[in-house]
């Protein structure tokens, strides 16, 4: 991995691969640059693809105080090393971040938003005080409880399933990046509904959902596509449990970058 220094001095780790028009990948909660590695590998044959660890996770650092603007600055720095402008693929809360970054004026050429959890359609809003409660738990030396709280109230996973997961080997890596839950909770609450500036983003955009994803996300995606000037909603096969079916999703991203009418003009594709 390589590193860059963001505007506030935070070290951001990234992987730069491929050649051609640039695509930057911004992932979501509990994710690092490896989350979309399969998707990135499929795009690298004819695109420059930059995946990165968002702050407070993976090999990236962190600097206080946190603000969404700092994450937008991180993304701006990653776009710069990608070539100065780029399409951005945003997964989950990374999709909220990507749309906000485009609204802030970053040189984003296209947007691919995969299951960004906007509180639209039937998808409920996140509790406004969730970032504060997560911060309090972490400050009290209870990062595991912060992770559990984010999973139940930030993601919507039933509490019994979260309790079962706490005894699994996969729990410790989440606890290690518990601070990042504050940031994802902030993004999905403050930017839980697109702002007027976000709704005005006028770049080619595709909003993607998996056919087997969690309830509420398809309705949210369809509503989001209807709010944006140049957006379409595409459903890809698979995608159980909020996962990304890499091959089908890569095909949609390629169509977006090629200006395919199927992506450009259709708001709802089953």
From TrEMBL:
Record-annotated membrane-spanning stretches: none
Domain AB hydrolase-1, residue spans: 36-253
Record-linked Pfam families: Abhydrolase_6
Recorded GO MF terms: hydrolase activity
Tree of life domain: Bacteria
Keywords on record: Hydrolase
Tagged with keyword Membrane: no
InterPro entries in the record: AB_hydrolase (IPR050471), AB_hydrolase_1 (IPR000073), AB_hydrolase_fold (IPR029058)
Presence of keyword Hydrolase: yes
Protein name: Alpha/beta hydrolase
Organism: Cellulomonas terrae
């Amino acid at each position: 991995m390589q590193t860059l220094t963001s505007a506030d001095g935070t070290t951001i780790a990234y992987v730069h691969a491929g050649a051609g028009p640039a695509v930057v990948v911004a992932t979501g909660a509990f994710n690092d640059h490896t989350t979309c590695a399969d998707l990135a590998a499929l795009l690298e044959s004819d695109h420059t693809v930059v995946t990165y660890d968002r702050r407070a996770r993976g090999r990236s650092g962190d600097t206080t105080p946190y603000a969404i603007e700092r994450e937008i600055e991180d993304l701006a720095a990653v776009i710069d090393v990608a070539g100065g402008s780029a399409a951005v693929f945003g997964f989950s809360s990374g999709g909220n971040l990507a749309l906000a970054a485009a609204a802030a004026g970053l040189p984003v050429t296209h947007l691919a938003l995969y299951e960004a959890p906007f509180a639209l359609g039937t998808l409920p809003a996140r509790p406004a005080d969730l970032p504060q409660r997560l911060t309090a738990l972490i400050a009290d030396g209870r990062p595991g409880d912060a992770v559990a709280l984010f999973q139940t109230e930030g993601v919507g996973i039933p509490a019994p399933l979260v309790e079962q997961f706490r005894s699994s080997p996969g729990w410790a890596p989440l606890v290690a990046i518990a601070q990042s839950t504050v940031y994802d909770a902030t993004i999905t609450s403050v930017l839980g509904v697109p702002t007027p500036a976000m709704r005005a983003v006028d770049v080619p955009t595709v909003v993607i959902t998996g056919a087997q994803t969690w309830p509420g996300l398809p309705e949210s995606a369809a509503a989001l596509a209807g709010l944006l000037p140049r957006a379409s909603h595409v459903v890809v096969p698979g995608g159980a449990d909020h996962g990304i079916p890499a091959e089908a999703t890569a095909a949609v991203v390629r169509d977006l970058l090629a200006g395919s009418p199927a992506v450009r003009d259709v708001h709802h594709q089953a």
